[in-house]
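Hey L., structure's done. Input below.
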Amino acid sequence: MNVYDILNERGFIEQVSDEENVRRMLDKPITCYIGFDPTSDSFHVGSLVPIMALAHMQSQGHRVIALLGGGTAMIGDPSDKTEMRRLISVERIDDNARGLKRQLEKFLDFSGDRALMLNNAEWLRPLNYIEFLRDIGRHFSVNRMLAAESYRARMETGLNFIEFNYMLLQSYDFLHLYREYGCKLQMGGNDQWGNILAGADLIRRVDQGDAEALTFPLLETSSGAKMGKTQNASVWLDPERSSPYEYYQYWINTDDSKVGMALAIFTFVPMDEVRRLQALVGADLREAKETLAFEATKILHGEEEAVKARDASRALFSGKGDGGHDTVPTVEIDGGSLDSGIPAFVLLADSGIVKSRGEARRLVDQGGAYVNGRRLEAFDEVISTADMENGCIMLRAGKKKYIRVKPTE
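Output:
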C-alpha cells in the first residue's frame, strides 16, 4: 500500500506541494526527513505527529531522517511564535539533542541504515556567512519571504534579522540532505509550510532537482489548546517528567470527540478497528479510550508499563483503588508533620494535586476533594497518619486526578 494513502486515511496530511508527484515518488523507496529543534531534552506529546509519520514511512520501506537542529536552534524558528525564542547555549543544545535521540529510538529502527539521526550543526555551524549569502541567499526573494505566514504573523510584534535567516538555513538543510542522502521529501507541521516549500524550491533552482513538501495538521483539543498540554503543563515523553501512569491518564482523558482522531494518529491500531471504536457511544466509549491509552503508552514505555498503568487506572476508576499501585504519582510528606496532622487544604497544595492553598479551599468547598475515596467536607479537616491505608494516603481532585502521599521515615 502506498504510504501516502496510509497517512491520508489516518489524518496526517494537511497540505502537499504536488499530490500526484508525491504519490508517484512513494511508489518506490525514497528518503524523507523531518526536523526537530532541540530546545528541550525531551519531546512532548505535541511532537508525536511527525514522529509517528516517520514511523509509518519506515514501516512501508522508506528511509527516514530525523534531523536534529543543533544549528538552527541557535537562531530559533519564528513560526507560530509571538516573540523571539530565548537563545540557548551550544552546550545545552548538544545535551538536548542526546536526550531526543534516546526517545526517537523508541519509535524508529536505526539499524542497517533504515533510519538516520543527523544534526544540522555539522554543516551549519562551520558555514562561511559571506559565501552562504552569495550561493544560497541570492535565490530568495525578500518579498516572498515576508508573505510567508511564519514571518507575516510576526511583523506586528517585531521580527529581528537573526530570525529572518531561519528560512534560508532550513532550506539549506533540505538542499544538503538532497545532495548527500538523496532526500526528496520534507515533512513537518503546517506552520512550517512556507519554510518547507522554500527548501523544495531551492533544490529546483540550484540543482534542478525533484523535491516535494508535505505538512501535518496542527492538532488541538476541543477547548482549542494544543495537543500535549494539560492544565497549562506539557505532557512529556521522558518518564522522569511524565510517568507512564500520567502519560496513560493523559490519553484516557482525551475528549470524546477526539478519540477517533487520536487512535488514527497516535497508535498503530488498524483503521477498521479505529472506525469501530470511534462509533462507540456513552459508557461503551471507555473501551476506545482504554485502547488509545494502552496502545500509546505501550509504544513509548513498553507493554509492561502500559499494563501497570491500565490496571492502576481501572482500579481507581472503579473506586476500588487501595493506594497500593506504584504507578500512581507519589509524593513524600514529612512523617512528623503527618503524625501531628495537616489541614486538608495544606496537604492538597503541598502534594501538588492543586497549585495553591486557595485553589485547595475552593476545591473542598465545591465538593471535589477526596481522601481515600471519602469526600472532604471541611477545608481545614486535619489529615494524619491515622488516615493512612496500606501505608499511604490517596488524594483525589475531581473525578480523574490522583496523588498518593507517603510519609518520610
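The chain has three domains: 3-216, 243-317, 330-407. The first strand starts at residue 15 and ends at 16.

-- N.
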